[in-house]
Design goal:
Order of helices and strands: HEEEHHHHHHHHHHHHH
Strand content: under 5%
CATH topology of the largest domain: Cyclin A, domain 1
CATH class of the largest domain: Mainly Alpha
CATH architecture of the largest domain: Orthogonal Bundle
Number of helices: 14
Oligomer: single chain
Largest sheet: 3 strands, antiparallel
Helix content: 55-70%
Length: 349
């Protein structure tokens, strides 16, 4: 029986020796393409994202793990805040408070019971009351809401409302609101912000979406600029021309000519004391006369929120300031629009 036992031991040891040799042979191969158990080819299952051997089925790698940080901030990589909306000046609390929704459903989408609905109504009421701890915060909340409403009505970008909210907040901190209506200060802050952002709007345009008279807005913006030391460069008529041209649907050549005329006007002696928006409207009208376009003075006046009389007077000053024409103010002072258009076309030809 002894030889039999020796034979069995030898037979059992052979597979072990064979496996050791097989393991040694697969060590130099790449673990990314060959199985470490049988040397077969590794494939990846797209549904489970597992890397397994197509021969023996062993799983070489499970789901891929991202070893990078779980946070990502595109504005500032040093800020590791993980949750919450970005801070905004257009809310009185800068967006740090919590709002309770009005859906009356739980986390699973099921409707709340009547008792739970009553509880949520009470929580909403007290949450709304505690958001503003004093009258200053309540006024700031009303002002930022008004700024957002007017900003949207005027079609201005969010940066304008952000700057307007900062201006109003500074005025509130320095007690400049006392004696002025909240709507007047909000309108004035928005007007100043639009000027600072290079997207000016006239007082008439602000008044069209505001709930306050234009005179009160003018006084409020004067106080804000004086007390806060805000310096605003005079508006250029060329900043109004693209918007007015879009409203009137004029050709590009008229728009370019209007910009040229307004630029020469601002460099002349006539620039002092003239509203840039009125100059822009008159420049569009003058350019339309040169290119024989049928643009009525009343249509331009309505689109630019000015008067036809102002357009006629400013048109003659624009022609006088234009170095491309030899027409002086005295020559065209008593001419009507038809004769002025004829003279301009003759000069252009």
């Amino acid at each position: 029986m002894a030889p039999t036992e020796s034979t069995n031991v030898t037979q059992r040891s052979r597979p072990v020796q064979h496996n050791t040799e097989s393991t040694t042979e697969t060590e130099p191969t790449s673990s990314e393409t060959q199985c470490s158990e049988c040397g077969g080819r590794l494939i990846q299952d797209t549904s489970t994202q597992e890397l397994h051997c197509e021969d023996c089925g062993v799983v070489a790698e499970g789901t891929n793990i991202d070893h990078g940080p779980e946070w990502r901030n595109f504005d500032d990589e040093s800020d590791r805040s993980r949750v919450g909306a970005p801070l905004t000046e257009t809310r009185h609390d800068r967006g740090l408070s919590t709002d309770i929704g009005w859906d009356d459903r739980d986390g699973y989408g099921n409707p709340l019971s009547s008792k739970q609905k009553q509880k949520m109504r009470r929580l909403r009421k007290w949450n709304s009351r505690f958001k503003a701890k004093d009258h200053k915060e309540r006024d700031l909340r009303n002002a930022t809401t008004e700024i957002l409403r007017m900003n949207s009505a005027l079609g201005l970008p969010d940066s304008v409302s952000e700057t307007a909210a900062v201006i109003y907040r500074q005025a509130s901190n320095e007690d400049l609101i006392k004696g002025y209506a909240i709507e007047a200060m909000a309108s004035a802050a928005l007007y100043i912000s639009a000027r600072l952002e290079g997207i000016p709007r006239t007082f008439e345009e602000v008044e069209s979406v505001s709930r306050i008279e234009i005179d009160r807005t003018r006084r409020a913006q004067t106080r804000l600029r004086r007390e806060l030391g805000i310096k605003i460069e005079p508006a250029n008529p060329s900043e109004y021309i693209p918007r007015y041209s879009s409203k009137l649907d004029v050709d590009r050549e008229i728009r370019n000519e209007a910009k040229r005329l307004s630029q020469h006007f601002m460099e002349s002696q006539h620039a002092s004391g003239h509203d840039p928006s009125n100059v822009a409207a008159a420049a569009i009208y003058t350019a339309s006369l040169q290119f024989d376009q049928d643009l009525a003075q009343t249509a331009i006046a309505d689109a630019c929120q000015t008067s036809a009389v102002t357009i006629r007077k400013t048109t003659k000053l624009l022609i006088d300031a234009d170095p491309g024409t030899d027409l002086g103010f005295e020559e065209i002072e008593d001419l009507n629009s038809t004769k002025i258009a004829t003279r301009l076309q003759q000069v252009r030809d």
